[in-house]
Amino acid sequence: MGKDGQSGEIAVIGLGYIGLPTAIMFANAGFRVTGYEVRKEVVDKINSGKAHIVEPEIEELLARAIESGNLRATSDPGEIRDKDAYIICVQTPLRKDKTPDLSYLENAVKTVAKAMKKGSLVVIESTVPPLTTVKMAKLIEELSGLKAGEDFHMVHAPERVMPGRIFKELVYNSRIFGGITPESSEMAEKLYRSFVRGQTFKTSSTVSEVVKLMENTFRDVNIALANEFAFLAHQYGINVFEAIELANTHPRVRVHRPGIGVGGHCLPKDPHLLLWPAREDFGLIRLAREVNDSMPLFTKDLLFAALKELNVPPEDAVVTVLGLAYKGDSDDTRNSPAKAFIDAIRDDVKAVKTYDPYVGGTSGSVEEAVEGSDAIVVATDHTEFKSLNWEELGKLMRTRILVDGRHVVEEPPRGFLFKGIGRGDC
Ligand code: SAJ
Hints:
Shape: elongated
Radius of gyration: 24 Å
Structural class: alpha/beta
CATH class of the largest domain: Alpha Beta
Bound molecules: ligand SAJ
Oligomer: single chain
């Protein structure tokens, strides 16, 4: 690493949603970056200047990084030897039993241990259970013979970016550098300030791991609270969104949004990571996960109540689901509540049709998707769905049921039997 910490050679391990944008930022900041990725087709695509993920600004920023010669991708671990810094951005998914699968991380750490040199800085950006970074430092000591904190430096530096705003948030979000030693934190902070303009904070690796998990657990628990407020709105015959809007006029209240569920690769997983190494369990965090995971079934109940009210036998019903992505204006369907909802109704209805403008393999248009349908269920808050002409679409349907799982409808459309999560007033 150059003396200013602003030049040198970096290897980024894992070129996914986080790794590729991070590699691009370091390359365009002047570092020579080698992106290591096991998926050969991804390597080839990146080296041709094409991104394999959808994200605003990525095409031009990747082209600049490749054309400058500062970024190239490889699947050959021999090409990431003796780098000044290694940035690990691999997935840490849950197994079916909700325990973390750290195999991707361990494989990445083993690859780094064999490639690194004395003095290398190793950064784990992946979201990991508390105490993982120190464990990985011990693994590197065993494999490399190097001494943690003396012969190499190690840091947990979690990302906080929101898909759709990744490049802005990589620059302007504040960042935390949790080192196994203060010197490690210092080195990482200097390295990232080559492109980070937000505030930077230094702490221990375990505090950093817990902070990242707290952020998403805080969000998941607050979404569960909003979902319980929605259940209460049905008990009291009120519109929960009107109540939330008024509650949020309080200077210190920020009630989240109720909906068909919590998807993505983070919120459904991170509370489990936070609890995993704990010696005892805690009720609130796990219960919040259960509440959020129950929302697709609550939406199914709304749909079946509507079918019953209009005497449509479920086994005769054709249901159109608008939206497969886990969140609005995204193409990402990982852990999508829409898929959980479809799985929950598939065997009980005659047919399910889908339309998502961002996701392939669905109907070509919303009209085609609703043609002859008995019910529309909105499962994603894509901007496009907020301005649909429901009365016009209703003319194409056999029965006019509309179930709003993402609060895209304010006024129930004329001629429809309308049900919405939290719409106890309808
Ligand atoms: N959701 C609700 N109600 C809400 C907010 C979200 O039902 O009020 C749902 C969304 O529809 C979606 C899921 O929750 O299905 C997750 O939504 P999200 O907006 O949290 O999106 P993520 O998971 O892509 O991003 C989160 C962010 N974390 C926080 O806002 C604390 C992001 O900053 C993190 O970087 C990201 O997780 C991550 O990678 O950890």
